[in-house]
Amino acid sequence: MVYNAPAMIITKKKDFEEILFAIGDTRSLFLLGCGDCATLCKTGGEPELKEMSQKLVAKGIAVTGTAVVPAACHELDTKRVLRKHKDEVDKAQAVLALICGAGVQSVGDNTDKPAYSGCDSLFIGNSKRQLHYYEKCSACGECVLNDTAGLCPETRCPKSLLNGPCGGAVGGKCEVNSENLCVWIDIYNRLKKAGKLENLLLKISAPKDNSGLAKPQKLELKREPGR
Amino acid sequence: MAKSFRDSLEAGFTITAEIPPPKSVSFPKSIEVAKKVAGKVAGLNVTDNQRGMMRMSSMAFSHILLGVGCDPVWQICCRDRNRLALQSDLLGASALGIKNVCVMTGDYPTLGDNPGAKAVYDLDAVQLMKLTDGFSNGKDIRGGVMKNHPDFFVGGVVNPFYEPIELELLKLQKKVNAGAKFFQTQPFFDIESVDTFLEQAKPSGAKMLIGVTPIKSMKMLKFLNENVLTKPIPDGVSKRIEFASDQMMEGLKISAEFINGIRDRVDGAHIMPINQVASLPLLLDMVEEGNGA
Ligand code: SF4
Ligand code: SF4
């Protein structure tokens, strides 16, 4: 298999006990996974659905069927899969989705059954190799990478500082997590190499404008004629 | 009240010290110390939930110190408040008579006693300095005219042992460009390092108050060396503490000598008496007696 390593929504499994508590007295479930991010994170692919089925059955909870949506954030995909498995979904009291939070809501918005979440969603992750994920962008709405030598201080500095480092780095490591390099020292090194240190010195970055970032955001593009 | 912190710094060598607000609503010991040192330090820094440890509001405690004759240097960090709250506090503090603000980023909440707190950092230290400086020049955050505006003396902190130092010096310059007029540093333990740093920081033109921390015991010395300082405490100092019959007194003596030793070289000294605020009056007496001078 060619290893496919895209940026994606990183998830981790919820504790089984927490899931049992959430579903309460539900006695039958239909299980859904996602063929994209949750499969790669090993939280909601075929093997995890199988494992979850076994655990539920051992607790006396019936599993009426399982399916993997190709990409659960694609709502039409989710709807199509739910329709295809209509009989099994109908037989269940609820759906348990081993998918990111966006996917769980795709499910919930396209069925009358309650949709429970089996995962915690963590961040948008880059992967360097399988099962190693790193947060490098947090979709802040005003990308500053052009000023910061291509390294994101919004995400890779825990304080999201835009005007240079705090004084806390020790030995080049971040004061918050000594496993990480201080991103501002990295930015400094890159800018220095490129002879662009004045970017850091002269320009005082203005406070971020959060006014356009009220949640929930949406983007609805118009199709251009002829395309 | 004696000369203000700002006037003192204009006039010559100036001593400031740091006092943490209490974690209670009754604090007779802190007040006793504040009253004793009121005429001896030009300014008393009031920390703002330092290291993420919850304490009384630094603005409230600054106001209390004003009431006992001190000129507070109100520390304000970016960790806990968004820009609305920061601006409200700036107006409130000014109306309460607070004149000096020392702006800093603030340690991340996970380092303190409320590790689950949401980290705000809506503004960073540079942006907050610029905002405060703007207020002091009658400009609001959007550059509009502000009538009956505050008049703050704005400063910040600098870490002379930061590596790479060039980056810290760039940030220092940026803070000066944003309106900071004075800086208080991390503690020094030898005069040679002070000279090196002053030379490096000279182009910024800012007033420098050199950090001083009295060593209370060998235990504290080891702790500082292992956990806090990037440059270890010089051997000469360690030896003196190690072989002293009274380590705490020796530590105070070393600090007094150090302060008197840098008098002619720099704008001032800033005493950070970690866990020994009660010794502050004694240390200041020793400085006045001219220890080591
Ligand atoms: S600045 Fe950082 S968080 Fe914002 S869009 Fe660019 S990479 Fe993403
Ligand atoms: S050490 Fe660097 S990365 Fe960490 S919080 Fe400070 S500036 Fe940000």
Describe the protein.
The complex is a heterodimer of chains A (227) and B (293). Chain A contains nine helices and seven strands. Chain A is 30% helix and 19% strand. Chain A has helices spanning 16-23, 37-40, 46-58, 75-84, 86-91, 101-108, 153-156, 183-193, 198-202, and strands at 8-13, 28-34, 62-69, 94-97, 115-117, 119-129, 132-135. Chain A is of the alpha/beta class and 227 residues long. Chain A folds into two domains: 7-123, Rossmann fold; 142-203, no CATH class. In chain A, the strands form two sheets. In chain A, strands 3-2-4-5 form a four-stranded parallel β-sheet, with helices on both faces. A three-stranded antiparallel β-sheet of chain A has the order 1-6-7, with no helix packed on it. In chain A, helix 6 links the parallel strand 4 (94-97) and strand 5 (115-117). Chain B is an alpha/beta fold and 293 residues long. Chain B has a single domain (5-289), classed as TIM Barrel. Helices cover 41% and strands 15% of the residues of chain B. Chain B is built from eleven helices and eight strands. In chain B, helix 9 (235-242) runs antiparallel to helix 10 (247-262) and helix 10 (247-262) crosses helix 11 (280-288). Chains A and B meet through helix 8 of A and helix 5 and helix 6 of B. The complex binds iron/sulfur cluster (SF4) (2 copies). One iron/sulfur cluster (SF4) is lined by residues 157-159, 161, 165-166, 168-169, 174-176, 182-184 of chain A.
What's the layout of helices and strands?
The complex is a heterodimer of chains A (227) and B (293).
Chain A (H helix, E strand, L loop, with lengths): L7 E6 L2 H8 L4 E7 L2 H4 L5 H13 L3 E8 L5 H10 L1 H6 L2 E4 L3 H8 L6 E3 L1 E11 L2 E4 L17 H4 L26 H11 L4 H5 L25
Parallel strand pairs in A: 2-3, 2-4, 4-5
Antiparallel strand pairs in A: 1-6, 6-7
Chain B lengths: L4 H7 L2 E6 L8 H10 L5 E4 L11 H10 L4 E6 L5 H13 L4 E5 L20 H12 L16 E6 L6 H13 L4 E6 L3 H11 L5 E6 L5 H11 L6 H8 L4 H16 L5 E4 L8 H9 L5
Bound molecules: iron/sulfur cluster (SF4) (2 copies).
The site of one iron/sulfur cluster has 14 residues of chain A, from helix 8.
